[in-house]
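chain below, 445 aa
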Amino acid sequence: MPRSHGRARSGLARLTRAALVSSLVVVAVLAFAGTAAAAPTTYYVDCSAGNDGSAGKATGGGAWRTLSRANSAALVPGDKLLLRNGCTWTGPLIAKWKGTAAAPISIANYGTGALPMIQNAHDIVQITGSYLVVQNITTRADAPGYDSSCGGAPMGWRVGFRLFPGSSYNTVKNVTATGLYNGIFVEAGSHHNKLIGNHMIRNNLKDVPPQAGGGAVGILLMGDDNDVSWNDISGSDACSVQYGRDGSAIEIYRGRRNSVHHNTAVDNHYFMELGNKASADTTVAYNKVYSSLKTAGFLMTRGAGDTSWGPVYGTKAYNNTVYLTGANSYAVQCIKGCNASVLSMRNNIIVSQWYVGYADAAFDEGNNLYWQQQGNPKVWFPMSSTSRKLDPRLVNPAALDFRLNAGSPAIDWGSMVAYNLGFRQDLANVAVPRGAAPDIGAYER
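prediction:
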């Protein structure tokens, strides 16, 4: 009997322990589920109605008021920080937070009216975090000074969006930067970022003396593996004591494996300049480049003979349409040791009023169309048998309509090089190819 009673008590103890463990498991699961199901938080910043003493989780008086308070927020993956439309703040905004691939942190706008503006900081929007989506924000600056030795040109360092070393996997889209030294600056050590659909307008500040040249850059890439696409960039042009004029829509300096495609550039001093021997493997595809500036250019790169700024290896320029009307326009320069390892240039339409280009040696060149507005284009590099000097017959160059007319020699004349790199749409989102072969230039007829 005692044994039987003992066995019963032992079984009851086991059941009690099992029930207790089961209960603890249920509690733990419910606690985890509650944590996992927690909704992301949206924080608001309102320059007029906000209050830094509030929780920031509602509009109006429930929003924060200043960027200083927003900078101190403890955002976690999935959270949003929204700036009220119509507001203006003095920067900086410091985006130091870290999202994840599945739950990025969004920094954007809300409300009606003009997009929120941040202005007049040394670096206006500072991005040091990862997996951030920064969008729908405008940046600008008053010129810190003017250079009397350069015709009173505006000068000083002001950057719209600066991605610092260590920042990665960020997306910057539909932002505007104007009146700055650099619109967007991706530093060395910042990588795998996407710059999409942005507006870089009249970024024309020059260096402060005694610096001789430099400045006026829409997007500067010193980091690696960045995608720069569907942006419009205009007015990157500044006085330079050393060079006369300087500026680039996009500049590559130290950056590697950057892809620059499907952008529209208007009236920049240069579309792209590449320098520094650490730079390599840049792809430039399906861009539309127009400039009426006197000394405008499309692409400048260097070989091993340029010990200060080169060599820059592995630049691939495919399916771009370039139209330069300036009296001293000079579309392509590949200098001091140009060769096939430095530059590959295929499937491009290049119309330039003065010189199509110069290279001091042969490079990888083919399936290009070269022209001058009055005919007889000046090409100072060896042309392959697949490239021709012919009028590309664009629809309306004066109106910047660079699509192809019927009968254009560019139709079905391209190679598959850009297609094989994954570029399957032209600048108008038309599938490539539509005929027997891709068309030359940025538009498929």
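The CA atoms of residues 328 and 389 lie 19 Å apart. The mean pLDDT is 92.
thats it, cya
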